[in-house]
From TrEMBL:
One of its GO terms (molecular function) is D-xylulokinase activity. It comes from Paenibacillus piri. It catalyses: D-xylulose + ATP = D-xylulose 5-phosphate + ADP + H(+). HAMAP family: XylB. SUPFAM superfamilies: Actin-like ATPase domain. PROSITE patterns: FGGY_KINASES_2 (PS00445). GO terms for biological process: D-xylose metabolic process; xylulose catabolic process. CDD domains: ASKHA_NBD_FGGY_EcXK-like. Belongs to the FGGY kinase family. Substrate binds at residues 81-82. This is Xylulose kinase. The gene is xylB. Keywords: ATP-binding, Carbohydrate metabolism, Kinase, Nucleotide-binding, Transferase, Xylose metabolism. The active site is at 240 (proton acceptor). Residues 257-451 form the Carbohydrate kinase FGGY C-terminal domain.
Amino acid sequence: MAYFLGIDLGTSAVKCILVDSQGGVKASHSVEYPLLQPQPGWAEQHPEDWWKGTADCIRALLAKSSVKGEEIAGIGLSGQMHGSVFLDQALNVVRPALLWCDQRTAAECEWIERTIGKEELGRLTGNKALTGFTAPKAIWLRNHEPHHYERTAHLMLPKDYVRLQLTGAFGMDVADASGTLLLDVENRRWSPEVARQLGIPLGWLPPLFESNDVAGHLQPAAAELTGLAAGTPVVAGGGDQACGAVGVGVVRQGIASVALGTSGVVFVHDDTYQMDPECRLHSFCHGVPGKWHRMGVMLAAGGSFQWWKNHFAFEELQQAEAEGRDVYEYLTALAATAPLGSEGLLFMPYLTGERTPHPDPKARGGFIGLNMRHSKAHLTRAVLEGITFGLRDSMELIKASGIRITELRVNGGGARSLFWRQMIADIFGYPVVTVNSTDGPAYGAAVMAASGVLQQDIASLCEQWIQVVDRVEPNPEQQRRYEQYYALFRTLYPTLQSTLHQLTDLVSATAE
Ligand SMILES: Nc1ncnc2c1ncn2[C@@H]1O[C@H](COP(=O)(O)OP(=O)(O)O)[C@@H](O)[C@H]1O
Ligand SMILES: O=C(CO)[C@@H](O)[C@H](O)COP(=O)(O)O
């Protein structure tokens, strides 16, 4: 039997899955690694940890599945997007990578938009300068660590560093490259004009591929470390959002996905290049060759729920541990005991700043409307409702662009909860479906590997392998009541923006 190996290099862990040639998942395994936060708003990881975690994960996966390295017909990589890996001429890591959720580059983003011009930047790249994107990180390095900038000879994204270790070959797919702010997204090539104006050497950037192109073959040293066979083809793969969308079959117009991971993403497929004139949505190349997508990104979706669990769910954690169950199941059950609208309580989910629709590293979260009757159940429900209202903001931008959506496919950890899926159906007003492949980005990466090796297009593989297994319809009465809360939610950020900025500045000033 031939298998395809999908690797998803996430923010908290790497996940590896084996998919057979009918699309069935044979086995999966994951290995965690640390996230460094050396200063408030900073987020870094050691690329060496990614590689060690990936090699350990593949070895453990082969051992637990009893699949031999020689049975793997192809490998695909998905990864957290935007992170900056700086390597020197000898391919040593220059400093830890700055991640997608790192917020330190506000000044660099302003400089980029001043230097190139907002409109011109949109015309050249399809996007605006956002703190999470890669080019501002390179400029931050030049401004703050010139000794590291001088040493740098290669700039790449997280999963491309892992592919380099696997194959010895440089490469990046156009889907992930779209989040660097150095890609001419419309024409699927680097933008020499943007690189020149920003002073970033074009020679730092790897060759570009489509996601299902074979970008290299496993080198002997990596084969020895992982238990895979030398020479195994490795496709370019994609950023985790493009891979996650492929993994749930969002490969044609009309279907949108909502990803409830640490970040939260509303994603639509585009057959032709479509740019949001004000760049409020990201306009990126899709992992499907010759196609594009748009998306709105919330920085702390599942991340807000995780924060709530970490700090305020002691009893639920104890109970879950004692019964060997998932603590989030207890929390969603608790939330379900509170009424819709959490009895007049709203939550702002901007705990790490925000991207869509408020590109603002100084945005912060909050509970608004607390009264003496509110209990933990109300606050828990308000957290889930606030995240979902925030994601609806992205959906509104997508709808305003004229796209007709018939169905939402949910993926990521939050998609496990039926209660949350019903809430999405009611707040968005669309049917919400789940599919048989629950491994999201890792599954999409395996589809890309199979597509490259079997020479079959991604859309037809998705059609064969991915089926809808559950469908939740919006409840008209709940939809109507949520509409009133959503209207109030929309007023919160504009009303509180200045206060939130002053609070953030006050904390920074106190920390200095
Ligand atoms: N059973 C559940 N019900 C609701 N939310 C959940 C559940 N399990 C996980 N989550 C949410 O999903 C998040 C993790 O999603 P995942 O896709 O694994 O994240 P990552 O972005 O790190 O890959 C958690 O932080 C939590 O908010
Ligand atoms: O920044 C983005 C997309 O633009 C994030 O989606 C990251 O790519 C990682 O998110 P998680 O998968 O960890 O939620």
